[in-house]
């Protein structure tokens, strides 16, 4: 019993950050992301005995989270409306050039179609390889690589086309 | 690897350590620049993706799990209690069943078993019981329970007392017989045991007679004439109702 508790707490401490960020990029809402993570870990606790390989824990949790997210759409169909730009709340005060740039880029990533942003998040934040992402998203590897290419290509284009508009403006 | 292939590869995985890709990168400086730009972009993307995680999320997750586990424990405890209670009830029912459900299902078998069980008390056939013979008055005071009374004691009555007959209060009379005692049972009518008018084993045999109020069962050894006993009894007992 105690060892299960210890395993669980270790899992939470090690992976809740990554999982929360992943959830955030799936649903773009802080509160929903938090709920998703909570549901995911609660399910993970119940099924913790089935997790044999600790190395696979992250992809296991992400798989649970994706399923939870899908369930959310089954439950509330009215939530399915496309995410709108205006709903991103800018809660961070951007006092620094770099954080401002990050913020701006964050908005741009949020505007990417989910099918592009999801593998990107998994690759950059999760550190998963193309094969691993392909397994998690149930796609073939070439599709994943193409989407990653397109995601970066779009971001690069956006960055290059709008460099003058961001930055500090005083009046 | 041509330029397009190179771009596709480096865009889809800037951190790739693929040998072909690395080799292709070494060939042309402009490719190195592309790779460098891409890894810069990737660093920016990484910065941008690092949305702040709520500080208390970790604690919340552990708390919620602890609460859920606690609930589960409580539910389990309740379940265990319920199971223990069920076992206790079943046990009680079983004991009840053993106590009140006789192993014999007809009057004859039970009578024989009862006689054998108490046989040693009457083994002397009442030879020394002359001073302790039961009087008609005391017999009738007991018989009153069964709404009947004897007009005569009918021979030497060695013993007369209530006893449990298959869980029912009944009257057990023991008379002095020719060679061995004769047992008479007055048993209230009951559905549990089937009535059987004649029964026997190697040593004893018996006869039952059904009256409105009760069954009268006589058990004696083979030398007794039970017919006569039954006859005498039926003539001597007056049922009040």
UniProtKB/TrEMBL annotation, chain A:
Indicate yes or no for the key word Mitochondrion: no
Q: Which UniProt keywords apply?
A: DNA-binding, Sigma factor, Transcription, Transcription regulation
Q: Which residues form the RNA polymerase sigma factor 70 region 4 type domain?
A: 104-155
Q: Which Pfam families match?
A: Sigma70_r2, Sigma70_r4_2
Entry keyword Amino-acid biosynthesis: no
Which InterPro entries does the entry link to?
A: RNA_pol_sigma-70-like, RNA_pol_sigma-70_dom, RNA_pol_sigma70_ECF_CS, RNA_pol_sigma70_r2, RNA_pol_sigma70_r4_t2
Segments forming domain RNA polymerase sigma-70 region: 11-77
What does the sequence similarity comment in the record state about its family?
Belongs to the sigma-70 factor family. ECF subfamily.
Q: NCBIfam families given for it?
A: PRK12517.1, sigma70-ECF
Record-linked PANTHER family = RNA POLYMERASE ECF-TYPE SIGMA FACTO, RNA POLYMERASE SIGMA FACTOR
Q: What is this protein called?
A: RNA polymerase sigma factor
């Amino acid at each position: 019993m105690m060892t299960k508790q210890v395993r669980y707490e270790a899992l939470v401490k090690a992976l809740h950050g990554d999982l929360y960020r992943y959830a955030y990029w799936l649903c773009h809402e802080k509160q929903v992301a938090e709920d998703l993570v909570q549901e995911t870990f609660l399910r993970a606790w119940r099924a913790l005995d089935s997790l044999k390989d600790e190395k696979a824990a992250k992809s296991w949790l992400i798989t649970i989270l994706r399923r939870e997210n899908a369930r959310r759409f089954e439950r509330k169909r009215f939530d399915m409306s496309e995410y709108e730009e205006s709903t991103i709340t800018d809660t961070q005060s951007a006092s620094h050039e770099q954080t401002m740039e990050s913020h701006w880029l964050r908005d741009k990533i949020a505007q990417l179609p989910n099918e592009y942003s999801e593998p990107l998040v998994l690759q950059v934040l999760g550190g998963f390889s193309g094969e691993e992402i392909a397994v998690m998203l149930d796609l073939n590897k070439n599709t994943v690589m193409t989407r990653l290419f397109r995601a970066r290509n779009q971001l690069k284009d956006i960055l290059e086309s709008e460099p003058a508009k961001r930055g500090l403006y005083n009046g | 690897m041509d330029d397009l292939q190179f771009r596709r590869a480096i865009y889809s995985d800037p951190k790739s350590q693929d040998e072909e890709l690395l080799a292709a990168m070494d060939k042309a400086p402009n490719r190195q620049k592309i790779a460098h730009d891409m890894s810069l972009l990737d660093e920016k993307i990484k910065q941008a993706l690092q949305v702040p995680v709520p500080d208390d999320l970790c604690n919340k997750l552990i708390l919620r799990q602890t609460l859920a586990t606690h609930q589960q424990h409580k539910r389990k405890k309740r379940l265990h209690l319920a199971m223990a209670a069920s076992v206790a009830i079943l046990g009680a029912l079983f004991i009840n069943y053993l106590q009140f459900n006789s192993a014999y299902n007809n009057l004859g078998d039970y009578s024989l078993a009862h006689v054998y069980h108490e046989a040693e008390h009457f083994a002397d056939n009442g030879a020394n019981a002359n001073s302790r013979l039961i009087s008609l008055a005391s017999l009738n005071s007991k018989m009153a329970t069964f709404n009947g009374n004897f007009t005569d004691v009918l021979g030497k009555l060695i013993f007369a007392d209530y006893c449990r007959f298959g869980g029912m209060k009944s009257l057990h009379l023991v008379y002095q017989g020719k060679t061995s005692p004769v047992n008479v049972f007055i048993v209230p009518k009951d559905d549990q045991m089937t009535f059987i008018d004649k029964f026997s084993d190697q040593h004893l045999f018996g006869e039952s007679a059904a009256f409105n109020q009760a069954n009268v069962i006589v058990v004696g050894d083979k030398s007794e004439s039970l017919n006569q006993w039954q006859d005498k009894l039926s003539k001597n007992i007056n049922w009040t109702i």
